[in-house]
Amino acid sequence: MNNLAALQELFQKEVDQLNLGTAPSKLYDPMHYIMGLGGKRLRPILALMGAGIYGDPKKAMPQAMAIELFHNFSLIHDDIMDEAPLRRGQTTVHKKWDQNVGILSGDGMLVKAYQYVANCDASMLPEVLATFSQTALEVCEGQQMDMDFETMDTVEAATYIQMIQYKTSVLLGCSMKVGALVGGASKEDAAALYDFALLLGTSFQIKDDFLDVYGDPEKFGKQVGGDILSNKKTLLWIEAQRRAKQQEVDFEAYASMAADEQKVQAFQQLYKELEVDVYAKAQIDSYYEQSLSALDKVSVEDSKLRPLREFAAWLYQRES
Question: Can you give the CATH number for the domain in which 269 is found?
Fold first, then answer.
């Protein structure tokens, strides 16, 4: 993954010298604070990779920065909605300052994101802006769907897939497509690359659900079983509920258990008995394979797509 490391370093240099503004300090300091908290920077890297297929990855640096600004804007607002005290191990913006500062600085980041994404050749601006705007709206739709799930007794698997695609995967697709367009891709290539990243992101998110149940706590980096303890309707939960009904297993008895280690162990066992673990792995594999198939539609020599295949394999094999 030398290509990934090089692009991460290239993008980090841009972040390190980023100047979004200085006054009023309570508007701009939170922006610089959350941008400085790090992270894998997967989304901007995909934008740079998209441009890199057709030439210089730096051509898409403004769009990569726009994607990262948008992503961090959404994190500030998500943390407010979730009343989260920590983000990447550090105090969240609304806790470090206050809720109003979090809302306003997040809004400012969204505006900044549009300023950056529009910094491209006029001939491709309509397509780039349309893609970015549609994605921004879908991310909001996905977040609302996720919140709606909390008060719903049952959720269909297809609805859940749409939610995770809107909330997470579309931004990966947008990153890849916008970077490719700025780099010089045809609309057909850009659409295929969008599909690649969207489907890979779907596999990534289902794997996240799986690791929450069966991951190694030391590698996973957060509490295993957190989704179970909060009765979160992940794909595993949804499928287990469906299969339990078919097999006349009292799923509600499991769901209403006290939130402790015993509940996590009970669900781990239930998922195995209902073969939901096997089902989840099959879904992870399916979306991963579909993502690789999408690359076959891109009309460049395969050597230029090798970094994307390596990136996909790295995400697929991750344990954290």
Answer: 1.10.600.10
Closest CA to 238 of 167, 155, 142, 162: 155
In-domain check, residue 172 = no
CB-based contacts of 289, cutoff 8 Å, min separation 6: none
| Distance separating alpha carbons of residues 129 and 245, to the nearest angstrom | 46
Burial of 261 (0-12, 13-18, 19+ CB in 10 A): exposed
Q: What is the pLDDT along the chain (320 residues), one digit of tens a residue?
A: 458 889 999 999 999 999 999 999 999 999 999 999 988 899 999 999 999 999 999 999 999 999 999 999 999 999 999 999 999 889 999 999 999 999 999 999 999 999 999 999 999 999 999 999 999 999 999 999 999 999 999 999 999 999 999 999 999 999 999 999 999 999 999 999 999 999 999 999 999 999 999 988 777 556 689 999 999 999 999 999 999 999 999 999 999 999 999 999 999 999 999 999 999 999 999 999 999 999 999 999 999 999 999 999 999 998 77
The answer on 157 and 59 residing in a single domain is yes
Q: How many domains, the chain?
A: 2
Q: How far apart (Å, rounded) are the C-alpha atoms in residues 64 and 66?
A: 5
Calpha distance 181→118 (Å, rounded): 13
